[in-house]
Write a structure and sequence with these properties.
alpha/beta; Rossmann fold; 6 helices; 5 strands
Length: 129
Amino acid sequence: MATQRALVVDDSDVLRRLIEMCLRPAGFEVAAAASGAEALEKVSSFEPNLVILDIGLPDMTGWEVLTALRATEAGAEAKVMVLSGYEDAKIEAKDRGADASLVKPFRNDELRSLAIDLAGPRLSEASPA
């Protein structure tokens, strides 16, 4: 089974670990960042296929991270799922170029399913015979 790489960006240690535990069994290799600056540093070396991005970060907004991410070679093609505590962020997420959004609190199966959908067929491909 092919591995997809997900970068989880959230300032909550608990939420980062929860998302990692949710994604690893689905075939994702996961890296984590607690701030926007750390996320932008990691994106070029980790080259994620998916970025799960909290909007409320301590050093910059998730929107600023999204803009900076899209300007990088490694982040330009990554799918981005925005996490927010506000329902109206879903509309703003689309307007700002995110591929999907979830409102906190979310269900683990909801996050996993959306992540797999965004990651594309590589996670669902059967191993070659």
